[in-house]
Amino acid sequence: MEGYTASESRYESMSYRRCGGSGLLLPAISLGLWHNFGSVDDYDNYSKIAFAAFDNGITHFDLANNYGPEAGSAETNFGRILHNGLGAYRDELVISTKAGYTMWAGPYGDWGSRKYLMASLDQSLRRMGLDYVDIFYSHRPDPATPMEETMGALSDIVRQGKALYVGISNYNPDQTRRAVEILKRNGTPCLIHQAKYSMFQRTPEEGLLDALEEENVGLIAFSPLAQGMLTDRYLNGIPEGSRASRGIFLKKEQITEEKLRQVRALNEIARERGQSLAQMALAWLLKDSRVTSVLVGASSVEQLLGNLKALGNTGFPSSQIARINDILA
Ligand SMILES: NC(=O)c1ccc[n+]([C@@H]2O[C@H](COP(=O)([O-])OP(=O)(O)OC[C@H]3O[C@@H](n4cnc5c(N)ncnc54)[C@H](OP(=O)(O)O)[C@@H]3O)[C@@H](O)[C@H]2O)c1
Q1: Whose CA is nearest to atom 8 of ligand 1?
Q2: How far is ligand 1, taken at its centre, from the CA of residue 92, in Å?
Q3: Other C-beta atoms within 10 Å of 271: how many?
Q4: Is 314 helix (H, G, I), strand (E, B) or coil?
Q5: 296, 198, 11, 7: CA torsion to nearest 10
Q6: Domain limits at 78?
Q7: Residues with CB under 6 A from ligand 1
């Protein structure tokens, strides 16, 4: 794929949503590089996924310092993809990265100190071959570091020109309100919260979505397909090569008979809607205008292109919502 040129029609079918009270529009579907872009993966396959994403209007690519495996390799490989053509479109891309989980040995490669965040972003920029990222996140709250220090580091990173916007991830509603307040005081508003949100993981409905709406901060939903459980992937067992077959982040034990019963019932509603279950699971999140974007992963171009078709039908009659709630109860 060297010498990649983007499709002329790349903006025709994607919709873009304003991220909170900011000026930034994000695609309704974004692509995450947590899995499938590491040093254990195949360049030919993952570069095609990235190019297909951009060819279909996915302008937002989400990374973190530790994505791989090995940690850091997703950023290095994304740097190769940029170098091999995607980077020619840098001003059409929103690239994010994060620091907050364990990255290197010793006391300065983890959590939320200024020391860690500053050093980590410099490493991320070097791996990707970039001068700046569009969004830099505190990947998780650090109970042992003053929130003023973590947010102060984010604000200074914006002032240094190394990130255009900042965000937080995995902060609960109270922590979110505090972080947003400090960032506001610092003059570098919180753009976005990245939270785990899907039909199977509805915690953001318990206060986070309300807090973000009040504070005018966007929400990007990660693992919207529950790592593949909200698709037809596991309806007939655990296929070789699937995420559950590798058993690290999605364990075989998580694919319980109870979950499969729910998946089959949801699949039936999706069929009635003329959608795949994956498409319905994404549409179900996007029906809420407070959700700026859903952040999917994909191990093939086919999966990604299939998921994009979710945008064709994001409306739900109340009777369907009730049936879905019954299944998930
Ligand atoms: N902030 C955080 O703490 C945090 C944590 C986790 C993730 N994230 C972000 O969220 C992104 C997405 O997370 P995720 O990968 O867990 O998202 P996901 O969309 O819930 O799961 C993606 C996986 O589901 C399967 N899949 C996707 N589309 C499919 C389809 N149409 N049919 C069948 N299977 C399909 C594939 O697994 P197979 O490999 O089995 O094919 C794919 O790798 C990450 O890349 C990262 O950017 C952030």
Answers
A1: 222
A2: 23
A3: 12
A4: coil
A5: 20
A6: 16-253+277-314
A7: 32-36, 62, 139, 169-170, 194, 222-228, 231, 233, 242-243, 278, 295-299, 303, 306-307
Please give the pLDDT value at position 3: 81
- What is the reported pTM? 0.98
Q: Report pLDDT for 217.
A: 98
| Domains identified in the chain, total number | 1
Asked, for residue 268, whether it belongs to a domain, the answer is no
CATH number of the domain residue 51 falls in:
3.20.20.100
Residue 2's pLDDT is what?
62
* Substitution site in 168, 227, 250 for ligand 1 pocket (most atoms within 8 Å of beta carbon): 227
Atom 13 (ligand 1): residue with closest C-alpha? 223
Residue nearest to atom 44 of ligand 1 (CA): 32
**What is the b/e burial string over 227-266, where b = at least 16 CB atoms within 10 angstroms of the residue's CB?**
bbbbbebbeeeeeeebbbeeeeebeeeebeeeebebbeeb
Ligand 1 centre from 97 Cα, in Å? 16
How far away, in angstroms, is 99 Cα from ligand 1 center? Answer: 19
pLDDT score at 205: 98
Question: Which regions of the chain are under pLDDT 50?
Answer: none
Residue 322 is assigned to a structural domain of this protein: no
d(CA 223, ligand 1 centre) in Å: 5
In a domain, 6, yes or no: no
Q: Check residue 231 and report its DSSP letter.
A: S
Contact 291, 212 (CB under 8 A): no
Half-sphere exposure of 215 (CA within 13 A, CB side): 26
Q: For residue 269, tell me if it sits in a domain.
A: no
* Atom number in ligand 1 closest to CA 228: 24
CA distance 329 to 326: 5
Closest CA to 150 of 134, 163, 168, 162: 168
Single-letter code of the amino acid located at 228: G
Euclidean distance between CA atoms 20 and 168, whole angstroms = 13
